[in-house]
Design brief:
Largest sheet of chain A: 7 strands, antiparallel
Distance between the termini of chain A: 43 Å
Largest interface: C-D, 67 and 67 residues
CATH class of the largest domain in chain A: Alpha Beta
Number of helices of chain A: 18
CATH architecture of the largest domain in chain A: 4-Layer Sandwich
Structural class of chain A: alpha+beta
Helix content of chain A: 25-40%
CATH topology of the largest domain in chain A: Glutamine Phosphoribosylpyrophosphate, subunit 1, domain 1
Number of strands of chain A: 23
Strand order of the largest sheet of chain A: 3-2-4-1-10-9-11
Radius of gyration of chain A: 23 Å
Number of domains of chain A: 2
Oligomer: homotetramer
Strand content of chain A: 25-35%
């Protein structure tokens, strides 16, 4: 009946979070800019959102479960006065969707107050948490960033500055993370030494912005400066922008390739490459690898639309629409009961009968993860009169769980692990099925100025992955450790 | 700060309402089906929504301001038990956006209770209201359907059945309307004698559905039966579906052409024609009438997307995206202050720089009404590096106010009335500008099984239009009366 | 689980409503004064509340289910600008507790807009409603004042002024009512020709106030002027206060004696008599009629407190407390389940053990209606160690249903109809039981400047009472018609 | 406009909190019983409330700002399944009224989860907090119990059981506190070694209850067992009730005397003495110390009512009412603006004119703290016609700030510090003024089975009070340290 369930019936990998930070030097309305920033990052997390502001060293924070426009109103934003801010939108893969786990986390430590907005996943959080607790620590949330905050606080005692404490934290806390942190006088941003998640720096007049994605810079009229580098800690204070970098950081980021496949907004530029152009290139590549004689190319809204444009372009086949999506579906609604589902209640997507009837169609989607929805929509296309349905997937088969911030906890739920491609084709009822190859992916992403993590396709993880992460019962194979 | 303002900054014509009705013969959850029905009609009105159910002659109604998913929850739907229902979504052009004016209207009259959901606009409502009041009547809303309900109640005294009273009402109440009415034992649907607004009949197993648009039938798994005809009153009772028709009704409907241009969902079929296909045909026609040498064709989301596909197809130019729309924008959000707008806060649409930079682009939209947004988005395209912007509009210039249910109160607000096409081109900053011709529109709509009203383009109204309708100060010209 | 149920478990007669009106000549914040007025009348109705204001002939109204402080907030009050107002609090005995039935009712009629706040009960409402409907009228509520409004509108056509229409209405509409009505330029107040319900006129600087009770005048600093007389219509316009009176109106009001017994606030003065002093006098009289040797006198909170003070004073017995009431009980709370009730969950009243243990106590209450709670609280006193419990009731046995605005639909629910006093004593477990006599009531109310209706004690109704009022199945006896 | 302001205009000392705990052995609905328990403790804190339940070692917690009946509903209570619970109502003197600071606090520590509900004030919380933070600790609230929780967690590492950790905590954490703590398998209660705040043990069938006040036992049908002793830790587990006691604990509690003066409900029994009887005895004593010839005795509702009964009894003067209080005032309402206050808007209390006019009255209140309201109500009595107003206060002059859990931060705000009694009399406009003497207080409280802290009257604190507590700028005198 709620959003949670709505998410469950989707066949998409979910990104954990989006982060945003602002350091004002121009008298902007910091809370409102952060609000618009989070609005632009809403696709990265719909479960909770929050804004913390620093008003001359007094911190105010408002956060709750729900979507950005539902959580904030004029009165609340008016009360969030300040000159530095951090903001967060959250999709919860760990820790449960309750109010305590909403971010930013605001903590008092020995040097005052800190507010943390965090995107990622730690692989040694449980061990660290246990270790802290053995020394008497108490935790009020079940989420990783509280562990990280604890370590930062401990490191701060041993060093002279908060940015140094953040850098030292990287020695202990392992995993993938991009974070924005607000201290009494600074705005800090950091990416893990592998640079798995994006974080970019922007400038609005004389003020600085940090954001998970650059699309937000366009929303608020800011200019893109550069990406934060792997293992880099940047901070803004009254003297401007500064930076230090962890000694073990990679030279080139190992960005999560799924940002290009699905997570990021098409109008973001990550590591030098336009997400839209990469997706279109995936479509081009896919058309080269899996051509087919057909009458119409379309994408599954919204995840397959960009690649479909590329496929159509490359193949010369007509581009069109195969589905109409209810544009109010972003919000919580009452789901059909099982009985109603059998009675064919379908609120989200309608097949565009007049478009597909009598045609041989190519349907593009970005990925098949659990495979729960493909069969349904292909059946609907056939019922609407499509003569042939050729499914094309703009990424390679999803074979390995992700430990770095998405909600794929085990191989058991992955369709491509359990079945061959031909078996999948039969199960989903397609007339043909083609995935983008790993080589094709490489070709399509050549505009990136970095390396990328494609462990979900290849099992080659950028760092050692412990067996007990996320309490996954899955047996870690040798292959995955290569 | 509210939806109202959000609507004001849009340059679109707004349809007044969507209606839905259900007569159960199979034990369906009537309230939930109505909920899904209204969800599928949400694009026709976002200001209020309501459902009334008839539980063995006891009527329950729940309605409020807001969107369908925000107004209803499980508990509320569970309380709405019954076997007949009517539902309504509303965009208010008259009567103010307050709770009293939400529909369905539920009234007691001499034969029990009636619930009315109504889409349209009456041209003699004020006169009728005044006449009733001179005889002592009292009105608790300021909206037209209360007047209609009053007349139906009065006619019911003189005749033997509610459907006959509805038919007789048509002799007195003039204008454009599609209505769904629930009496103690019947579900009734009717269209005005001109058939200006759509209303279709569907069937789900042995149960009957009435809906403003057919897309809803797909949502709930119902089968399309036929359109209600102009001046026809249909009703469903325990003996099935029945019909009578007004003697002065047109043979062929004079459907509002703007349903195809903008109002309806692309996956609806109205008067035999797929809205999507008509829009694509408009794009084809537009490409024939206004070709241009360019590198990219795209539509303004979402109103120009279908025609852009047609334009690209006809012209052979590459189809792509020019903008990315924030998909959470359907809901209420806090608007930027004027200062923030100047600072370029832009939450709704981002230009897709990588796509348009260095290119000559063709941008398609469905219409230019007030012209408030075109200049902004063309400027944004140029700032993003577009070399040329060729605007194409998939309908003729909007020149005449609509009296039949949209929010165009006077000619003063219409851009094409005040300026020549060349002047408009200069004002919006386009490198070229082309509108679909009235003849082209005719070609594009040839799949319709009826005539259409295009008075907004030609000033030729299907019925006599009084000068004082909607208290418009505009001087009715001879031309408009032809 | 809701308020409704909470009401059901109470053994009190419920008054229907409280009304308030304000005509500003001094620049007061009319909506806020009305808000405070309704707050002071909250005891007269807790189911819905509303305020309508007249801002230079534009009417704004806000009303909802719930308590006054829950329905209104600063923003809402700020939007209710105007110079005339009417307000209403409601306890629903008829028409159901839904939002449509909340008052004030705002209607448009031939001369503009009217807003009505009404307290009372009509005995021929159904007949009138049916008659109107036979002529084609439609009703959107199931409550009496809509019928009254209709008649006023019809009379207005035949006469020259709204106040005259109100007066003429009295010829057709029978029952008990006090009303406040707002027209485009006037504030009108009226009482039925019997004067069964209270309505008083106050003055605040140069502005006028109408209120069901005078306690409100103290709340807002207004001065009491006089009561509206039976069958009188008063109105305030720019020329000040005016009055006309119905020719068949009683000279002296026949005020409902239950206002003194239970309904009104002790700090109100009705028809020249302080409610507090009358209640104390009832206690004095009761002590004279039913003396007893005891150690402690206390009242059942809050209904028996004033009479207990009088009883203690007259008898010379010590006054004290027997119960402590949870002072947060005014609001909705989750009721215990049956199982929990058996497990003795008691949220509302706690016996004050230290006070009653080992003592012979006199417990005073204002009335025994259904007798549902007496037995419980006497048992609780005994369990707490009270040696003897002598119950004294400060009004005569309640024997006849009320047709004029309380929720006593039939004799079947009245304990004193079914049982003798000795039987009642046994059933409630008291050691002795004494009611105030009809003569004693007369003595206690001698400060009133009018007659009173005590039909609930005597069956002598002030007007003819039809058998089918309120669809009561109770057989009207000859005795009741005398 | 909010509750906060409403509190500010009151002249009462505010208690910090109420706590409740339940250990079920009978299959009770634990959450609902806790709900009723908190409802009965609502007078101890109206700013936030919360319930945590332990469902076989899974903890669920729901808490929010507001009153108990507004925070919880059926659905929420249904989700709070479990067999152990702790509950809390809060009035915030420290830490701000925000959601983070609501209790119970739920934390994970080395042995699982703990939930803490706490009533009191620590005098070395800042020092402890600082010390923890110097070792790298982070705090997510600004309230004392988080510090206490931290210390308990640290002690738990060094000892074998949670109850022992609580006992050891008492060596480090100084101040006044009563707490209820829930561990994975136990319900624990504790009072500080001085026993400054109350905490009692009750039994409901085979289940155990802990509560700040015994009135709650009556609400839920539980039987009072005994008070928790000073410095005692009690716990309930599957083997029943157990106890250990701190070696430095006082033999007899030093209970806060203000529980009897104002804080507690009259129907509670604390340390063997009925609060109601103690208050009445204060009235008796006051009548002996400050007799006066008068016509009427009444209390200021609700704080002076019990003592007024005692005063009237002792003096032989007639007892009555001087004011009527709006019984809906417990909830948040919109406060009058300054202008409206001048215009005499008075929503809370109305003088009962008919009762006081022409009389010499004795008005009893429990205390004069800041003296903000006395002058107003005495003026109102005079305006209503009272000939003489003799104010009697049922406690000694309030001279010293409280460090143990009330909101009296400094001497500066205390009227009796700044003015002599004669000056106070003049300032409030009374004809005479008498306070209960310290000796009289002793006489009135002789039923207590313990000593009491009356430092607010005498400056003799039970423990050393540091100068910087609560960041009070007040200079701590020698007198206060004696």
């Amino acid at each position: 009946m709620n959003k949670q369930e709505s998410v469950m019936i989707s066949d998409k990998v979910h990104e954990e979070c989006g982060v945003f930070g602002f350091y004002d030097n121009d008298g902007f309305d910091v809370a409102r800019l952060t609000y618009y920033g989070l609005y632009g990052l809403q696709h990265r997390g719909q479960q909770s959102a929050g804004i913390a502001v620093n008003d001359d060293n007094t911190f105010h924070c408002h956060k709750d479960l729900g979507l950005v426009p539902d959580i904030f109103n004029d009165r609340i934003l008016n009360n969030l006065t300040g000159t530095i801010s951090v903001g967060h939108v959250r999709y919860s893969t760990k820790g449960g969707n309750n109010r305590e786990n909403a971010q930013p986390l605001v903590y008092q430590y020995v040097k005052g107050t800190l507010a943390l907005a965090y995107n990622g996943n730690l692989i040694n959080a449980s061990e660290l948490r246990e270790e802290f607790m053995k020394n008497g620590a108490i935790f009020h949330t079940s989420i990783d960033p509280e562990v990280m905050m604890y370590k930062i606080a401990q490191e701060r005692i041993k060093t002279h500055a908060i940015e140094r404490a953040v850098l030292n934290m990287m020695d202990f806390v392992h995993g993938a993370y991009s974070l924005v942190l607000m201290s009494p006088r600074k705005l800090i941003g950091a990416r893990d030494p592998y640079g798995l998640h994006p974080l970019s720096i922007g400038k609005l007049e004389n003020s600085y912005v940090l954001s998970s994605e650059t699309c937000v810079f366009d929303n608020i009229g800011a200019e893109f400066i550069r990406d934060v580098e792997p293992g880099e800690v940047v901070w803004v204070d009254k003297d401007g922008l500064h930076s230090i970098k962890h000694e073990k950081a990679l030279e080139r980021a190992r960005i999560c390739v799924f940002e290009y496949v699905y997570n990021a907004r098409p109008d973001s530029v990550i590591q030098g490459a336009s997400v839209y152009e990469v997706r279109k290139a995936m479509g081009h590549q896919l058309a080269k690898e899996h051509p087919v004689d057909a009458d119409l190319v379309f994408g599954v809204p919204d995840s397959g639309l960009c690649a479909a444009i590329g496929y159509a372009e490359e193949s010369g086949l007509p581009y069109g629409k195969g589905f109409i999506k209810n544009k109010y579906v972003g919000r919580t609604f009452i789901l059909p009961t099982q009985a109603q589902r059998e009675a064919a209640v379908n609120i989200k997507l309608n097949v565009l009968k007049s478009s597909v009837a009598g045609k041989r169609v190519v349907m593009i989607d970005d990925s098949i993860v659990r495979g729960t929805t493909c069969a349904n929509i292909i059946r609907a296309l056939k019922e609407a009169g499509a003569k042939e349905v050729h499914m094309r997937v703009s990424s390679p088969p999803y074979l390995w769980p992700c430990y770095f911030g998405t909600d794929i906890p085990s191989r058991d739920c992955l369709m491509a692990v359990k079945y061959s491609i031909e078996e999948i084709r039969q199960k989903i009822g397609a007339d043909s099925l083609g995935y983008l190859s790993v080589e094709g992916l490489k070709e399509a992403t050549k505009a990136l100025n970095c390396d990328y993590c494609q462990a979900c396709f290849t099992g080659k993880y950028p760092m050692e992955v412990p067996l007990n992460v996320n309490e996954v019962d899955y047996k870690h194979t040798e292959e995955g450790k290569k």
